Amino acid sequence: xxxxxxxxxxxPIYQEILKDFYFDKGKDERxxxxxxxxxxxxxLSTQKLxxxxxxxxxxxxxxxxxxxxxxxxxxxxxxxxxAADGATSVLxxxxxxxxxxxxxxDGNMDDIISADRLGSVIVVHAHGxxxxxxxxYVPLLNHVIGSTQSTPLKNVHNFGGFTDxxxxxFMARHFGAKSVTLLGFDFEDATxxxxxxxxxxxxxxxxxxx
Length: 210
Description:
By secondary structure, the protein is of the alpha/beta class. It has 9 helices and 7 strands, in the order αααβαβαβαβαββαβα. The chain has one domain (7-209).
């Protein structure tokens, strides 16, 4: 069932995230505008995501260390595969081309560019901290859809979600996926930095909400 995330529903959650991380809403909005300008009319239509996700069984791959083993033990055939940023590299190592990559451009960009050239849809997320990466990498990508966690624009969409992983889930539900299976998610990873731990807890909370 589709769960359409209207911005009026998402905005209170977004405001809570801004407060918790001391993020600057103005920077998020500026990043979205820059992404919008760079994409112009070459942005893919969201109809492509609808075709890939609507009534499909979806596997969302996070980049936890467990992903490699889980991929060896799960039948991914007849599924739409979404990679959360750095998971793209693990999938390509397993000779799996993700149908969709959701990224804020801090994963292995050589691999993400390769996936783009092989036909993956790249959902590029704009936020206040990745403006330089947007300017550098978006012109190199061919199959791009823009996303934002702030106010959506004509060609930069807000499907809900905060981290790459939970944005994948929100996007799948937004377009009416039949089912969503998570691989490579470790919300309790003790090896990450304090800010990453906080982001993982937000991802856990948001995925449960979704």
